[in-house]
């Protein structure tokens, strides 16, 4: 039986083209579990994989989609039975392996997590990779001493996928959130998620002038990197931490060592791709108990498989706000 998938193919001239095609079960890669996909999302990596690949895609034809949620159709692994609701993020699915931009996916059982009670598959994908990364960053900051009342927490790239969910989660947990954005029109949106202060990106996205500035931030979730990360390190409070989750502003950080030595600032790397299963369950349980569905819906924008080529281009240009929820069966 055929089903729909968004397939990226290499063209004779070396370019790539993505289109919705009909494929079958025999086309799917090897794996222990076949999932009837219900929802996926659009992430920055998806934008790369829908285009030239950004060095992520190894073989064509390719089905992108770095995350998905749905129900188990069949399983060769005793941990999962038909009808189980599951979610997948990471493990380079959608990059080196076929991903969630299709009505079915076949993956290793080790990569799947049961959708916790209180969370629908739709809401799991509004959270998606971006939200999973955001909650992981929040929990890591808390593990290093951050707590409500410590002071304002800075979120950079706040109108994007990771930033939107991070802003909402932090505000929901009782933190004072300062949201950095280069898009003035997103200010009201970020305030609706709980941001108490909107900061123009231009005020912080510049080369370090002094290694230390006034202490402003009790914590930070940084999705930008580059000059912005270098600058904000000098604005962190004594003993505080920055959780680095992205590099939209560049991979090179022209920073000084002074904030680490004189203020005991910590820079925490957040990797959501290869997180152990037990920690994934811990993060998803925290999401299910702490992020209400109505809050998730407030940042969601619907899409279909046919919309993905355009959305992939837009997310690379920084033109996507909030979370795109892809109904693969629409």
First-to-last CA distance: 18 Å
| Helix proportion | 25-40%
Q: Which geometry do the CA atoms define?
A: globular
Q: How many E-type strands?
A: 15
Strand-and-helix sequence, N→C? EEEHEEEEHEHEHEEHEHEHHEHE
Structure explained in plain terms:
The protein is α/β, with parallel strands linked by helices. Helix content is 27%, strand content 26%. The protein is built from nine helices and 15 strands. Strands 3, 4, 5, 6, 7, 14 and 15 form a seven-stranded mixed sheet that branches. A six-stranded parallel sheet has the order 10-9-8-11-12-13, with helices on both faces. The protein has a two-stranded antiparallel ribbon with strand order 1-2. Helix 5 links the parallel strand 11 and strand 12. Helix 1 packs across helix 9. The longest helix is centred in the middle third of the chain and has 23 residues.
